[in-house]
Amino acid sequence: MSETLPPLPTPQEPSDKPRLLEVGFAPDEPCLRADAARNRARLLEAATRLIAEHGVAGVTMEAVATAAGVGKGTVFRRFGDRTGLLLALLDHSAHRLQSDFLAGPPPLGPGAPPVDRLRALGVAVLYRYAEQLDLLLAAQSEPTRRHSHPAARALHMHTAMLLRQILPDADCELLAQTLVGYLDPALVHHLTRQCDMPLERLEAGWNDLVTRVTGADPQR
């Protein structure tokens, strides 16, 4: 029998101050020296220019090194591999989303009922992912990184927290995986680009899914 899930704090939000999860840095370098941070920023700027000019396919470790005027080994030391570089390019968007759902205005941020926040979360993710689909898909080329990256874990943890406030007796860890699976970039790509579904239909589907999973009143 699985262990009982820990009870939520009484307030709507966790009792401790919300903190952004770190994304993009290796576990052994939570903060970079000033010169290393400048080099990292220059490499990311070069990669961003390459995407604008040639698409995600134009971002290779060698191309970024050439565009930034550094040796290829510098790029590998900073990001590990191409997937690590692409994940780093998504850091800003990930931090912005976390800021919005941890401390932004309702309904995405604190102050709205948890069901409304859950609905707003999925809609925000859908539209942000739609803007970055090519980069997201390229960054998720290794399945083992898909769920373990800090940005993905932050989304799952927040979804599970909201679910516990709505369904305290449910296995919210697994329910959160189900809901977050609806927002998978590969699925969004398939539905919008291969099935020609408008984002508005995916938004309506998300709201319907939340309603059915939580048993809440349909959104009016």
TrEMBL record:
This is TetR family transcriptional regulator. Keywords: DNA-binding. Residues 60-79 bind DNA. The keyword DNA-binding applies. It comes from the Bacteria. The keyword Protease does not apply. InterPro entries: Homeodomain-like_sf, HTH-type_TetR-like_transc_reg, HTH_TetR. Residues 37-97 form the HTH tetR-type domain. The lineage of its organism: Bacteria, Bacillati, Actinomycetota, Actinomycetes, Kitasatosporales. Signal peptide: none annotated. One of its GO terms (molecular function) is transcription cis-regulatory region binding. SUPFAM superfamilies: Homeodomain-like (SSF46689).
